[in-house]
Amino acid sequence: MIVVAGGGYQPEPKPHKTKAKRRRHESEFKARVALEALKGIQTIQQIAKDFDVHPVQVSD
Question: What does the CA dihedral 29, 33, 34, 39 come to, rounded to 10 degrees?
Fold first, then answer.
């Protein structure tokens, strides 16, 4: 907190967070993920972990 003249308090300004850039996946990568999902050998969670994507992005 910052003390302001007159006895008041003012919150300290928060530093700006920079957004991470969105990753753009190549069509070959998308095809590999899709084929793994269609095979049905691994769970969606396992595929997502292996390919470093969120499970919502993987569907069968």
Answer: 140
